[in-house]
Design goal:
alpha+beta, Phosphorylase Kinase, domain 1, Transferase(Phosphotransferase), domain 1, PH-domain like, 6-stranded antiparallel sheet, 5-stranded antiparallel sheet, 21 strands, 37% helix
Length: 464
């Protein structure tokens, strides 16, 4: 394709997209040396008057908007191409892959990521819907949402693009009905040619479901007009309920506004993913937010080991209690001997500064270990907790927590392993220290799930 420099300013570099009668081009603004997007509407045999109305409305809408997460209006003019008239609309170019491209590369997003994405897009919608008159995008879908600068636990920068289907409530009240949108992401009322602010919420909800399941909402089963995504979406029950309200077929049952949806999602303080296991006592769960991830697993797969641990620790407690009394008596004899030979002042000094503190420390430590093996290990759970700075290892029993080793710096994590041997497990390598969890009570699917969630949160690739 060869095109001249438009308006002696925009040097065409290539074509980004093409529809009937419309082309989207990448160009260089010779005045600023920046890349821009040029949209062309050609008056040829494919031209329809409805396209002209939408084209002019897009340009007019973006001209009146100013928001960092949407393209900015630059220029609008008429040109002649090959003896045919055309309209050109120029806007800023955002160099970032779409969510659709991200899905094609990595499959699906975790719940934490989807929640961050939802908040960012809701903030854009709040801005659009608060315009006078309110601006309705009408075509929110993964291909119209761009994502860039993603790193670690930060989802990155979000942009909402392609305002070619935009509508204002003032124009919708004119009595002219236009069906615009994409199947699977369109709210039911859009099929009747009417769109309201809640229609964008439906499109957003459907897009988030696509991110969680890696399946287009149009390919998922429906019941009474409701998208049945729960069985294939790896998300918590409370987030699932939030999504259900976003994609309610009845407009009146959806959130009243983007602001209301944002308030609700902000109240979902933490994310609890589904718990896996056959016996109810042997559950594995992940609680995570942007700041911290917590993995809780049972200490033992079955009750036999718990009983053995309890009985062994109980015997140790009885044995230690029986022999600690003579030990105290022996220490008393030693103190009396020192008193007879060196005098009181020496024994008090020796006991105060060395003998008694050491003995008490050992006494407490031994009983601490006995209690751990009697209570925490047989009846409690393992807890691995990672925040932005530290890694914590602990046993949990109800509201009690016992940290059995010192916290380690998060930077110590060098590798994640997902064992595919006969006994599935997930391994975190902390330098030369190997921390394994899940061995003996996870199947391969559950181990892969845990490994994937940990990998996504940490931003570290899992090896097998």
């Amino acid at each position: 394709m060869s095109l001249p420099i438009l308006k002696e300013r925009y040097e065409i570099l290539g074509q980004l997209a093409k529809k009937a009668g419309r082309r989207t081009l990448l160009a260089k603004d010779l005045n600023t040396s920046e890349l821009v997007v040029v949209k062309l509407l050609t008056f040829n045999h494919e031209f329809e008057w409805e396209q002209l109305k939408l084209f002019e409305r897009e340009a007019k809408t973006l001209r009146n908007l100013s928001y960092s997460a949407i393209p900015s209006y630059i220029d609008f003019f008429e040109i002649t191409l090959r003896n045919k008239k055309a309209l050109a609309f120029v806007q800023t170019y955002i160099e970032a892959p779409s969510l659709e491209e991200h899905i094609q590369k990595r499959g699906f997003f975790s719940e934490v990521e989807v929640k961050q994405l939802a908040k960012s897009i809701l903030e854009i919608l709040i801005y659009l819907h608060r315009q006078n008159p309110p601006v309705i995008h009408r075509d929110i879908k993964p291909s119209n949402i761009l994502l860039t600068n993603r790193s670690g636990n930060n989802i990155g920068d979000i942009f909402l693009v392609d305002f070619g289907s935009v509508q204002t409530l003032a124009s919708s009240e004119s009595g002219i009905l236009t069906v615009v949108g994409t199947y699977g992401y369109m709210a039911p009322e859009q099929f009747g040619g009417r769109a309201v602010a809640a229609s964008d919420l439906y499109g957003l909800g459907a897009s988030l479901i696509h991110l969680l399941t890696s399946k287009s909402p149009g390919d998922l089963p429906q019941k009474e007009g409701r998208i049945q995504f729960e069985k294939v979406a790896n998300c918590s029950r409370e987030f699932s309920q939030w999504l259900k309200q976003m994609v309610e077929p009845s407009q009146s049952k959806r959130f009243k506004s983007a602001a209301a949806a944002l308030i609700k999602i902000d109240n979902l303080s933490c994310i609890t993913l589904p718990e896996y296991s056959q016996p109810s006592a042997n559950k594995v769960s992940i609680n995570k937010s942007v700041e911290v991830i917590e993995i809780v697993t049972p200490c033992y797969k079955d009750n036999k080991k718990s009983i053995i641990s309890f009985l062994t620790a109980g015997c140790a407690a009885v044995f230690y209690s029986f022999y600690s009394i003579p030990l105290l008596s022996t220490l008393e004899v030693i103190f009396h001997s020192i008193i007879l030979n060196y005098g009181l002042i020496h024994v008090y000094s020796l006991a105060a500064f060395f003998i008694l503190p050491c003995f008490l420390f050992l006494y407490v430590k031994i009983w601490e270990k006995i209690l751990v093996y009697m209570l925490f290990i047989p009846f409690g759970k393992h807890q691995l907790q990672i925040d932005k700075k530290k890694i914590y290892f602990a046993y949990k029993l109800f509201d009690l927590e016992y940290r059995y080793r010192r916290p380690m710096p998060r930077q110590a994590i060098i590798k994640l392993d997902n064992s595919k041997d006969k006994i599935p497990e997930v391994i975190i390598w902390l330098g030369t220290y190997k921390y394994s969890f899940g061995k003996g009570f996870l199947n391969s699917t559950q181990a892969a799930w845990l490994s994937r969630e940990l990998s996504n949160w940490l931003g570290i690739k899992t090896t097998s």
